[in-house]
Amino acid sequence: MPRVAEAKIFPVLKDKVAIVTGGAQGMGKATAEVFLKAGAKVVVCDIKKEGEDVVTELSKLGDVIFVQADISKSAEVQNLIEKTVARFDRLDVAVNNAALTPDKTPLTDFDEDYWNKLTSINLTGTALCCKYEMQQMIKQGGNGSIVNITSINAYRPQPNMPAYTVSKHALIGLTKHAATEGGLHNIRINAIAPGAIYSDMSAAALKTMGTTEEAFTRSATVFGRFGMPHEVAQGSLWLCSDASSFVTGVCLPIDGGFLAM
After folding, report:
1. Could you give the CA distance from residue 200 to residue 12 in angstroms, rounded to a whole number?
2. pTM
3. Choosing a second label site near 70 at 20 to 30 A (CA), which of 48, 149, 155, 219?
4. Could you confirm whether 155 is annotated as catalytic?
5. Which tens digits make up the pLDDT trace of 118-149?
6. 227: which residues sit within 8 A by CB, 6+ positions away?
7. Which residues pair with 192 in a beta bridge?
8. Each residue of 211-244: pLDDT tens digit?
């Protein structure tokens, strides 16, 4: 695992209320932590009950609660928004990070059940989050920022991930469309496309692939290392802060130079 110092965090989200989906691990957990350090009140959402443990861990940093939800279900997303507003009175920013892990077959042999399950979370679930997050922001009189987490696969497909690749391509279209609607209410919607980011999952995948971290990262980044979850979280922090007040409808690759190779 690479050791990368965390950037200094300023209170750019002071008193803002944020939702982070998929917050029980990896980039979601790192985003919740960074947002708390930046002064936000955070709602960690995840389908896994482990989110409760994450909230216990992060509570020392600020005001944070856990809401369990399956984002592919409209009623559960609405409940997420309702519980957020019940606790904190409003919603200012959201990072829609929740997603299923990639499929593992070629298109010519894809698992149709997993395709439907994956797209219901990665695409429809993110769309439902945008729908109800934007509704709440509009109800408050406008203003707000939403970040959808897509993938570098949206630019350069990787082998044997047809459903994942399709869903992540579609998220860029969703983000652009949402930005055209949100602009009327000063709601900004952007996306981030992470590349090779370190996690327990990625470490296990290297073993499955029969390769090493060094060999893999040489071909995946110009830095020869994995990115860290907190580096992606910093991108979300910028896009959710007033520092990016004239930025909407864009997708920011955080890929260690992969697209430049």
Report:
1. 30
2. 0.96
3. 155
4. no
5. 999 999 999 999 999 999 999 999 999 999 99
6. 194, 195, 196, 197, 198, 221, 254, 255, 256
7. 149, 252
8. 888 888 999 999 999 999 999 999 999 999 999 9
